[in-house]
Every structure is written in C-alpha cells, then in structure tokens.
Amino acid sequence: MILEDESVFYPEQAEDLMVKKNGIPQELVQVKNLSADLALSHLSPQKSDSFFRRCLAYKSENEDLVLKVVSFGTVGDELSGFISDDDESKKTLRKKMLGHGYLEAEIDWLFRNLKFEQIDEPVILNDIYTMMLWSSHYLSPVIELKFL
C-alpha cells in the first residue's frame, strides 16, 4: 500500500481498518493478536456478522477488494495450508465454509481475495521506534509511542 496516494483510512468501521480510494473500498483488514494459533474459528465464520460475511457485503462495490487478516501471533496449520496454497487444506476449509452456509461462489471470491500477513511484533516495534526517532527531536520513541 502506498501512503502517498489518495487512500482514505477508516479505522474501526466495517473492520479493524477499511481503506478506500475515490470512495471505493480497496482493502478490509482484520487484526488478530492471539495467544493461540490463528484458526478459522477465530474468524467466526458461522456468525452472521463474521469477518467473511462483512467482506461479502462489500463485494458488489469492488470485485478486487483485498481481504487481509493480520496476525500478531502464530498462524495455525489449517490456515498455513491455505496460505501455502495446499489443495487439501483449501478443500477442508471449503467444506467447513459450506457447512456454515456459504455458497460456492462466495467461497471462491473469498479464497481469491483473502490474504494473510503474519507480523513479528518486536520487529515492527523496532521499525516504529526507528521512524519516530528520525521524526522527533524531543521525546524518546518509547515514551512517544505510549502517548499515541
């Protein structure tokens, strides 16, 4: 994502973050910070207000909408298989989604647009501290981040 473009960020609306450009949703981001390995069940696919159902509500606005799940913890085997494009893992996830009432076409769209990103929290904090160190001359980045 390029921050110098015309993107507008909407935190805590449809998802943890929605990014729009020219009024059209470009990306929906769900952030998970779990002590357990991230699994499909953490996205509550069986619920009517699940991440997947909320994403499907925006499909008509942008067929190419990026659906991103960001994990600050470990991604479990079930979703790791999906990430690595393992056919058996995808077949298992598809069966579970069908069991929760999703249509084949909905699952196809979700699978096509869904991305996972695993974040190493200490690394990203170091990157933030480094950026803040260069942009601030008054406070320690650690102290400044606490005020944000």
Structural write-up:
This protein has helices at residues 51-56, 77-83, 87-99, 104-113, 121-135, 141-147; strands spanning 7-11, 17-21, 24-32, 66-71, 114-118. The protein has one domain. Strand 3 (24-32), helix 1 and strand 4 (66-71) form a beta-alpha-beta unit. It has 148 residues and is of the alpha/beta class. Strands 1-2-3-4-5 form a 5-stranded mixed β-sheet. It is built from 6 helices and 5 strands, in the order βββαβαααβαα.
Are there runs of 5+ residues with pLDDT below 50, and where?
none
How many domains make up the 3D coordinates? 1
Rounded mean pLDDT score: 86
- Strand % is 15-25%
Order of helices and strands: EEEHEHHHEHH
Query: Percent of residues in helical segments?
Result: 25-40%
Ends apart, CA distance between termini: 22 Å
Write the layout of secondary structure elements.
Layout: E1 7-11, E2 17-21, E3 24-32, H1 51-56, E4 66-71, H2 77-83, H3 87-99, H4 104-113, E5 114-118, H5 121-135, H6 141-147
Helix pairs in contact: 2-3, 5-6
Please outline what is shown here.
With 148 residues, this protein is of the alpha/beta class.
Question: Key terms for this structure?
Answer:
5-stranded mixed β-sheet; single chain; 5 strands; globular; 6 helices
